[in-house]
Amino acid sequence: SSDVCSSDLRVVLATNVAETSLTVPGIRYVVDTGLARVKRYSTRSKIDVLRIEPVSQAAARQRAGRCGRVADGICIRLYSEEEFAARAAYTDPELLRSSLAAVILRALSLGLGKVEAFPFLDPPAPRAIAGSCLTSVAAARSAAAGPCAAARPGR
Predict the structure, then answer these.
(1) Degrees (nearest 5) of the Cα angle 9, 14, 18?
(2) In the Cβ-directed half-sphere of 49, how many Cα atoms lie within 13 Å?
(3) CA pair distance 54, 77, nearest whole angstrom
C-alpha cells in the first residue's frame, strides 16, 4: 500500500556488514539469509577464495542485534531452528582461514623463533604452517635476489 511506501520503514538484509558494531537508528526489521561470503585460503591452490557458507550461531545473533537497538524489532531468519542449532557456535578465527606466509615472515623478522612453537591462541594446523613456510622461504629468496630476479636470463 502507499502507507508502506511513504513511511520511513527500514529493513536490513543481513550480510557480514550487519555483524559490525554500527548502529543505524530506525532499523526495525532484519532479514537473515544465514549465509555469508567468507574468505578462506586454499592450501591446495595457494589462493584466497570467497566461499558462501552458513554463518555461525554467534554471527546470526549479532545480525539479529541490528534490529531493535532503540525500539522493539523483528529478525526474520530464512532457515529453521534446527539449522540454527546445527551451526558452529562461533566463526573460525581469521588466522585459521588465512595464508600464514605474511605472519611467518613478520615473526622471522622480529626474531620470535620457530613459528611451530609460537603460543597462538588458536594454533593453525601444522600443514598450514608447513605450506606457508615454503611460500615464505620462496618470498624471502626472491626478495634477497632482487626485484628483477625472475627476469634475469637463466631463471
Answers:
(1) 95
(2) 10
(3) 12
Cell of 146: 632482487
pLDDT in tens, 6-15: 567 776 666 6
Is the Cβ–Cβ distance between 95 and 102 less than 8 Å?
A: no
The strand pairing partners of 76, in sequence order, are 31
Residues 64/34, Cβ–Cβ less than 8 Å: no
The DSSP line for 38-49 is EEEEETTTTEEE
What is the pTM for the complete model shown?
Answer: 0.69
Q: Which long-range contacts (CB under 8 A, 24 or more apart) does 76-79 make?
A: 76/29, 76/30, 76/31, 76/32, 77/32, 77/34, 78/31, 78/32, 78/33, 78/34, 79/32, 79/33, 79/34, 79/54
Say which amino acid occupies 103. V
Asked if 100 and 115 touch (Cβ cutoff 8 Å), the reply is: yes
pLDDT digits (tens, 9 = 90+) for 54-65: 999 999 998 888
Instruction: Please compute, for residue 1, the number of CA atoms within 13 A of its CA located in the half-sphere on the CB side.
Output: 3
* Residue at 67: amino acid letter: C
**Nine-digit cell at 130?**
608447513
Phi, psi of 76 (to 5 degrees): -105, 110
